Structure formats: C-alpha cells, structure tokens
Amino acid sequence: MTPANSAASASRAPAVQDVADAELQKHRNMANALRALAMDAVQQAKSGHPGLPMGAADIATVLFTQFLKFDATAPDWPDRDRFVLSAGHGSMLLYGLLHLLGYEDITIDEIKRFRQLGSRTAGHPEYGAAAGIETTTGPLGQGLANAVGMAMAERHLAATFGKDAVDHYTYVLAGDGCLMEGISQEAIALAGHLKLSKLIVLFDDNGISIDGPVDLADSTDQLKRFEASGWHVTRVDGHDPSAIAAAIAAAREAPEPALIACRTVIGYGAPNKQGTAGVHGAPLGAEEIAAARGALGWSEDAFDIPCEVRDAWRIAGIRGCKKRKAWEGRIAALDPETRAEFDRRMRGDLPARLDQAFAAYKMALAKEAPALATRASSQNALDVINEVLPETIGGSADLTGSNNTRSRDMAAITPDDFSGRFVHYGVREHGMAAAMNGLALHGGIIPYGGTFLVFSDYCRPSIRLSALMHQRVIYVMTHDSIGLGEDGPTHQPVEHLASLRAMPNLMVMRPADAMETAECWEAALRTGDRPSLLALTRQKVPAVRREFSADNLCMRGAYDLAVPERESDVVIFATGSEVEIALEAKAKLDAAGHPARVVSVPCFELFDEQSPDYQASVLGTEPVRVAIEAAVSMGWERFIGTDGIFIGMHGFGASAPAADLYRHFGITTDAVVTAALARFTEGGA
Amino acid sequence: MTPANSAASASRAPAVQDVADAELQKHRNMANALRALAMDAVQQAKSGHPGLPMGAADIATVLFTQFLKFDATAPDWPDRDRFVLSAGHGSMLLYGLLHLLGYEDITIDEIKRFRQLGSRTAGHPEYGAAAGIETTTGPLGQGLANAVGMAMAERHLAATFGKDAVDHYTYVLAGDGCLMEGISQEAIALAGHLKLSKLIVLFDDNGISIDGPVDLADSTDQLKRFEASGWHVTRVDGHDPSAIAAAIAAAREAPEPALIACRTVIGYGAPNKQGTAGVHGAPLGAEEIAAARGALGWSEDAFDIPCEVRDAWRIAGIRGCKKRKAWEGRIAALDPETRAEFDRRMRGDLPARLDQAFAAYKMALAKEAPALATRASSQNALDVINEVLPETIGGSADLTGSNNTRSRDMAAITPDDFSGRFVHYGVREHGMAAAMNGLALHGGIIPYGGTFLVFSDYCRPSIRLSALMHQRVIYVMTHDSIGLGEDGPTHQPVEHLASLRAMPNLMVMRPADAMETAECWEAALRTGDRPSLLALTRQKVPAVRREFSADNLCMRGAYDLAVPERESDVVIFATGSEVEIALEAKAKLDAAGHPARVVSVPCFELFDEQSPDYQASVLGTEPVRVAIEAAVSMGWERFIGTDGIFIGMHGFGASAPAADLYRHFGITTDAVVTAALARFTEGGA
C-alpha cells in the first residue's frame, strides 16, 4: 500500500463521502500543514517525534476547527476549553496548532528552533514556555490525570460561580503509552466515579509503541476497560473527519466522561515508514520527507504554508472571539462582589483577611501552647485557612482521618454535587497529585491533598511536575518518620526528606509544633509559584514555640529557637518531632557547662534563600555541631559540616511502638548529650 | 442483623448446605481460629488491622486447606505454590495461618509479640522475618505485581527445567486498595497479555476502604476491568467455602489468569463493627472482642486454640508432604548436570565461568578502549554476561533500543513461549520493577530491566522494596543527565542520583566508560543481597580506563583514576560522563602549576563500606576540592566538604542539544579550571 493509497483508503469510508469535497480538501490541507510542520521541524532539529503529529493531525484539525472553544488572541480566557496533549512527545502537533492558529508566542522562527536552547518549543511541551500550553507533558499518563483535575476544577467553579462564568470542556489527546501507565487507571477510575461528563479523551490508537506493535506488550481492550469505570466509549477511524466530529459531538452530550478511540496510522503520510515504530521518535530523513510531500500532495518548501491554508487556520484561531466577548459580558454583569472574587481567585491572589486570621490563630496558639501531633495541628490550621480561603480544595488518598486534611464543615465533592471542597481521591496517590496539578493549572483553586510521607514515592513523578511547572500545590504528608510506630519499615520514611529536598523548586517543610505548622501553612499558601510539602507527625509533640511572633519565623527556613545566656559551644539543629529532643539536650548540656544553641530548621529551601549574613548567623561557629532528624543524614552537612554529629537513621526502620524505636535507633536526648560531651573530652572540639 | 445471623445467612446459601455439616463446622472452627488470633493479637498490640483477617478467614481457610501446595516443614521447597498477601495490612491473617499450619518461625509467642520490636510478626509482613512470608507487602498493589513476576518465573523455569521440576500456582489475596493503585493496572494488563494462567487473584471484595464505603471514591466494575485485560473472572460469596472452592478449582483450569471476587464482610464476626471502616485498622476493644467470641461461638481464651482445631490446621500444614517427596524424587532423577544447574540457580550462586568471562572481556576493553555511550557498553557487557549466566531475564519498559537491555540472540518471552529471556514490559515502569522483585523472590532468576533514569520516579516504591527485601534486582537506567539533550527537563534527571543514593541498601552506580560499566555489572551481579541501579549515558564517552586490572576497581566505590607526578593540590571527584571533564581539567591544572588528582566515584555506597584507611587515602588532603556531576550537589559534601567547588546542576535542565546544555549550565572543563585556580588567587586554598 503506498501512502497515497493509504490516504485515499481512509477517505473511501462512506461517512467521509458525505462531506462536501471542498470541505474535505480544506480539512486535508489543514491537517497536512500540521504534518508538514512536524516533519520539517523534527528534521531540522535532528531529533523529535514526527509519528504522533502526523498520525493525529486529522483528529486535532477536527477538534480545533469545529469544537474547541478558545481565542488565540486571548489565550488566558478563563472559560476556554482546555486541551491537554498527554502524549507530550508529539509536541510538534501542539506547536504546529498554536502557530497556525495565530498564538503569538509560537512564531515560525520558534518552530524552526524546535528543541533548541532558549526556544519556546522544547522537546516536550513546557507550561509557561508559551501561551496555549496548558500543562507540561512528556512523562506519560500525567496529562490525562492533569485533565481530570482540570475537569474537576471546571465542575467546582461552575457550582460556585455559575455556568455563566464557568462552562467549558477539557479535551485530552492520549496515546498507548499514557494508557499503559498505571496512573491512567487512577485517573480513569476517578473521572468515571465523579462522572466528569465534560472530559473527553481522544485516544490516538495507532497500535505502535517504541518497541514495536503494542501487542508485543499489551492486549487490553481499552474500550471495555474505560467502560468498566463508567465511561462513554466509542471507536472511529481517526483519519475520517466526519466520523471524528460525530464522535466528539456525541461525547459532549454523554452524561459520562468519554473515550473516543481513534484508529490512526502513526506517521500518516510517510510512505515507507508510516505504521511502524520507526516513525515514532526520529526524523524521517530528507528522502522520506520528500516522498511524504508527494504522497500528501504537499508541494510547499520546508516550513512554508500555502496562503489559503494559513488563512483557514487563522480564521479557526479566532473562531471563539464572539463567545469570549459574550462571556466577558456575562462576567461584567455579575454583581461586583462576585466578579471581584472571581477575578481574585483566577489571578491566584490571597484575600487580605488571611493575614488577620493567621495573626489571631497564632496568638491563640501562643496562649494555649497545645501539645498535638503536627498532623492535628495541620487540621486546626486548616479550620482557620479554609474558613477564609474559599479556593482551597482538600483531599486525601483514602487516609482522611489519618492525614487530617478535612477541616470542620468541609463537604465532600460527589458526582452529583461539586460544590463541596473535599475530594475522596481513593487509594490513588499518583492520580491525586496529578489531578492537583490540573486543579492548580486550571486556576481559581489552591489544591492540597494528603497521604503518608512514605507514599510520596507513589506520586513523585507528579510532585516533580508541580515543581517544574511552578504550581502552588500543597502536599500534606503525615506519618513522617519511625514515629508512626508499629506499621513498620514499609510505612516509615527514612530517605524521603532527603530525596524530596533534592528536588529543585519544592519547599519541603517539617514543622516542630502547632505554631510552626501554622507558619508553614502560611508559607505554602503565600508561595504562589511553587509546590510545598508538609511532613507531619503521627505522634504528639509539645509546643516548642510559645511566644507570639508577628513575623513568620518558618519563612526564614531556619532560626534560633533557644539561645543560652552564656556563649554557646554546641549548636543543635533539628526539625519536626526531633526539636523536642534538641531542647531537652540543650538543657542537659547547659547544665553540664557546655551551653547549647538550638536551631529549628523547618525548611532547607527557604533557608538557602536567606541573605548570607542571616545564614552565617544561624549557622554560627560553635565547635560542636549536632543535627537531629529521624531520617538519613544526607543534606545535613550544610549545617554541621562533614565531621558534625548526626543523630538520626542509618537504614530502614522497624515495627514497634514509637518510643521503643526512638530508643532502639538511638535518637534520644541522652544520645545527643553523650555524643556532644564526648567531643569535648576527646578534644575534638 | 446480628453477627450470628450474618454468619448464619452466609451459610444459608444452597451451595453451603451441600457440604456435610461436620465439614462445614470444621471449616468454620478453623476460620474462626484465624479470626480469634487476629482479634487477640491486634488487641494486645494496641494497633493493627483486624478487619481483613476476620473478613478473609474463610477464603484463606479454603485455599490453605484444599488447594495451596506447600509443606510447613519445608517452607523453602522451590516448587511450592506461592501465596502473596498483597493487602499486607492484614498481616495477622498470614501470621495466624503460618502459626496454625505449624511453620516453626511463627510461634504463639511471636503472635503475642505482634508489632513489637524484634518480633517476626511486624506490622506488615516482612520478607526474611519468617519462613512462609513470600514478599514484603503493605504498600498497596505491590504484592499483586510481585505475584505477576513470580508467575512469570514459574513459567520460565518450567520451560527451562521441565514441569517435573517446576509446576506451581501463584495465589494472591488483594483488597480494594490494591486494585485502586495504578500499579495494579500495569500488573493486570501484563499478566493478561502473557496469559499467566497459573496466577489466581482472590479479591477480598468487602466494599470498605479506610475513608468508608469504597463507593465514596470508586465505582469500577472490577470484573469487567480484569476481563478487559483477558482475565478469567468470577464472583462468589466469600463466606461460602464450597463456592470459594469451586471458583478456585475453575480458576486453576482456566487458560487465563483468574480473578475471583469474593464478597466478604470486613471484620466478619464482630457484631457491632463488622462491615464498617471502623474495623479496618484499629483494635476492636475488649467489649467487642467478647461480643465477637459470642457471635462466632468461640469460647476459648485469648490466644488459645481448641485442640481439635489446632490438629486440623497441623494436618493441613503437612498436607503437601507427599507431593514434596515426590518432587524430590523427580529432581533426584534428573541428569546430574541439570540437577546441579537447577540447584545452583535456586541457591542464587553464580557460575565459576563468570570470572573468566569478565576477565577476558576486560582485557579486550583495555586493548580496544572503545568510545561508547555507557548504555551501549552495558549492552556489550550483557552480551558477555547473558552468554554465561542463563538465569538473567532482561527487559525494558518499552525502551528496549534506548536502554540497550536486549543482548545478542536474546529471545522475547511471549504468551505462548516462556523459554525466552527478554520481557517487553510495556510502558509500565512500576509494574516492571515490582515484577522483577517477584522474579528475584521466586528464586532461580536474576532480573534486570531498563527505563530512563528520570522514570525511576515511576517505580520508586518498588525499588524501595527491592532494597528493603535485599533482592538482587538490577535497574538499568539510561539517559542519566542533561546529556540526553533535546527531550528537555521532563526527561532529564537532576535530583535522581541524590534521591536514590539517599535510599538505604541500594547500590547506585554511575560508570564512566566501558571498563567501569563492565565492573559495575560485575558488582551488581556479585552482590546477592541487595539491588543495584546503573545510571548510564545516552551520549558517547571516551575510554578513561585503558589498562587491564584484575581487581574490580569499581567495587571500591571510588578510586584514584589519575595521579600527578608532583604532589597534587587539587583533587577532582567525578562520575560517569563527567569523568572526561575531570581528566581534561586535570591536564590544564597540571599545566598551570596546580597538579590535580582525579578520583572516579562510580558508587557512593561501596565507597562508604571500604576501610577507613582506604577512604582517607582516596579523600586525600588537597586544599582545593572539586566534584563534577551533572546533577544536584546533595551528598557531595562527603567528598569536598561544605566549601568545596561543585560543578553540576542547580535546578532543572532544558531542551537543547547536549553540548549546548553542558555549556549553558557551566559544566565544562574551563569552568572547573577557572573555579579551581580562583581558589589559589583568592587565597582560599
């Protein structure tokens, strides 16, 4: 079968015959423009993935010219439909679309600089690099799960502000790889359960993966699988524009989320390589590109687009302009208070009343000095926060009572009522984290969600994307050490604090008591451009901060918690539940004639951002330097040097009551005191 | 409904009526023994999960007394059926079974010391703590995916050694949580694709999760979902022993893997708490336990078992003795060479000829000094290894050609032919890693599998379990830095080396050239009691080790690669692709009058295990200390102190050709030389 025949055979289906010839030719030219740009850009970059853009060009053309609600001149229009290219390696499809539709950020020069340093057209779509890129994709399955969050955001905001303000669809283009990743199941099951009827997944069902035919590794009946989770499902010829259009139209009406499996030929149009793994992720080569141009009837030079095709795409690009203006009219007609609130939330600004709420809460804490697990303190903080911040949506991966993420009076979101603000994510940490990215990306919402710290491993790829995309997503990770006790080493994080601190752009915070927990929450909320992770105890800890401070001391990352009257010759750094041990050790060391200073270190990342003078003052020059954290030592050299005393974990934990474990692993006041005093008798100090 | 009624109603089903009354009563007593032990142990520990053991006691009783092939007096019998408690929080079910069946490790004292320090009865089952625990579970979904690997191992070993030697089933008990985790989909799809007909999953379908009814978060039709992946599926009353038995019998005959959804009442027998989330993960309390004893007709004291019930269980425990002896007879009848090879492989010993193979290969490398990407060198090493080590099973998560894990002449395992040694795992990193744990745990196999290093995040929970279980699983992680180039920050690991080095008991190795890659493979294979991870380049690197050394220098973790003739005042530590930069910098520094020593650091963990003298000699005392690694600095203080020069990454990468990225991020020879020389002019040295 030659490519020309192949293209023709797709057009022989009866449904296509019904479309006026001119319309069909126009469609083909528009789709071929996407194919040509993808071939040319990948060839010029000498790397990239032509297979998906060429195979899915028909699907994308139908979606963007007939259904997707957007305005290329106003890419940030809050009520636009969202389009997520979950199969992010097909980035040239998205760049081609954005360029042809007239999005300013993606000029033809950017297309020509595909995958080059400083371009907006990175190998995989990067959120923030150009308007029109709704999320960063590439790690497979993430986009699909982000889209679930976006669709949830739409339903919630529509329930909050009304359909006049928020009423849009979320579309996803996903490939076999996305559907093989486990995260896809979590996303599919959650979307099906919540009946996210305005989520429509277009499955680029080309039967090819990197290793070869998908059936080397998979025999899943995807339609049946989605149906098992309550989805509307259908299958179409992915090169038949009228069939695709009919399927999308039906999907929009379905009361469930919809899967449209579009049978496509990967690399459609490349006569010798289409339909094979060879076209997936490498340039076609000059010869094959020439052959493809012939097969597709595309005579333009590289990167050139015929005027009428360019015009057709530009017209499609402003197709949504009237709808946008009508929407602006509706927003303008809202009562001023609602409108101001809608605008504030979409901007991501915090309300002024949050300041007073935190101040009042911190004053109360200073007075009460409660001894509580920091997870309980976190719930108390949330009682305050959620009262004044209507944009928070909380949740838990089936550990609601353990993570303490459901604040007072917080109603659950249900399939029938999205006005609630708490999500039962199920035992789906990965899907939860990726959905939270989608909630944040959508705008108007600050998502937070809980699981056990050890299970941060289950959602690490999505935490990384929160960080890479600079999204304000707040991870509430409880049971943060051996202090969780009997559940044992499978549930006891030891390496997780270090491994998360290693991740760029993530604030890892481990507060020591109720006051610090409040301050860490405040820091997380006030940091609009990156994610935070709160590591919280299962077990009770005493109040170590008993005085009110208008300043948020935790936002300094590390600070003097207790300074002796005499000059100190020991400094003890500690976090979370181990700050109590540090204070007890200080008392004993003071009494032993070696005054100790205690520094609480709720957040390494924030400390690294302080002025050098401040950092030097906190680090100090005490000859004996101790760090206490019930976790591995990696990263603590920053505070105690390479010859400091580290009291913590040196391997996995064990199953026993928490107090037994602290003793067993030698994380005790006596261990600190003994080690510190030994330095003086050894003459090491 | 009182619990007594509930128990009665389960027995009213017609199928149960057919069972002779005495047999039924015996079954009930045996199941109630499991329930009682679970209630009592959790109560005594003041923590734990009584809900699953009580709910699934009938299922377990049927399986262990009628189907499971094992011999409690020979728990390591290689051809035993495997039983995996994927819902590991129900550990008391397993401990109760092992105790009652007569496994020596689980005495009644161990049951009484449930969840206490040093007991064999940890909160979640821990592999190695007691015979009969086939894998460590607790993190949900892992056991199910381990079992897929075990079932693969069975099929492969049966294809290799014949059914006389290997012919057993693998059973799994999984809960709702296991099935909600994304990893379950990867496992289910892989098992269905491979038609693992001897894998049987018993789904404890109790409709309850921690937050409450499962339908708070999930509406999945699990039977349909499994069917979509080609499984045999059925549903039974999980308290009806004859129905359970009939379903298992049918599942054993089915040509596909089988799911048996067993409708159960969580906490069955606890009159006021059964069927609710309250019974899932907390002691019942003395009052409810007393009520349950009444409802179940169980009059024994805590931890007491009636003699006839104990006898019945003990008889069940040695039910498999004859089968074991018959198997031993068949093994004894094998030709001596086959038998020796079978024994060697089940012991996990390496063949002597591996030494010569490595020596010859290293000699050839010294002669050729090839410039190759280390991923290509890894493939070359595998050509050597797989030739002499028939027990390796390789694979890749759909990146076979990129990870270079398929060696010469390595046939793929297919649903119809398991004699091959390469697995197309599909885009399922997590499922792959967990299946590899299962392959290793089964015995007779050394599994290795590949993906991109950045996607180690997708399988991190399983890597952690490899480490926790001391399993020889080898992770081949290619594309290990910004050196992968244009795919951009979503695909470029920067924090992964540090985050993996933070994990206890995992050897993270980053070889610098073909010789080091060979040595790292040798180290990974020779280390029988923990997993290894090889971080390998996409891009070509020169040979930096050009002389043959009979010693495996990489097994020292770090070693002098280049020592100047004059005394050095600079030391440069580097790994992998950055060793080349270190050597170039050394040449320039030598020429500039500041002789430099270069240390290659293929493995932090192995270096930490060297003698203090050796460590001191490698660390040296040069005043100017530099580390080069295209990753974040965390962990390098060990080598360069807190004021050393670190040349590497300080945030996420970017999309561009590799050479541009190295320049852009300042990881260059000139940057090293400039920074080092500045220390001398600044007087910092």
From TrEMBL, chains A, B:
Cellular component terms per the entry's GO annotation: cytosol
Catalytic activity, EC: 2.2.1.1
Keyword vocabulary terms for this entry: Calcium, Calvin cycle, Magnesium, Metal-binding, Thiamine pyrophosphate, Transferase
Pfam family, one: Transketolase_C_1
BP GO annotations: pentose-phosphate shunt, non-oxidative branch; reductive pentose-phosphate cycle
Enzyme class, UniProt record, top EC level: transferase
Residues the record lists as binding Mg(2+): 176, 206, 208
Matching InterPro entries: THDP-binding, Transketo_C/PFOR_II, Transketolase-like_C_2, Transketolase-like_Pyr-bd, Transketolase_bac-like, Transketolase_BS, Transketolase_CS, Transketolase_fam
PROSITE patterns, per the entry: TRANSKETOLASE_1, TRANSKETOLASE_2
Annotated positions binding thiamine diphosphate: 89, 138-140, 177, 206, 280, 455
Family: Belongs to the transketolase family.
Subunit structure: Homodimer.
Name this protein carries in UniProt: Transketolase
Lineage, highest ranks first: Bacteria, Pseudomonadati, Pseudomonadota, Alphaproteobacteria, Hyphomicrobiales
Name of the gene encoding the protein in the UniProt record: tkt
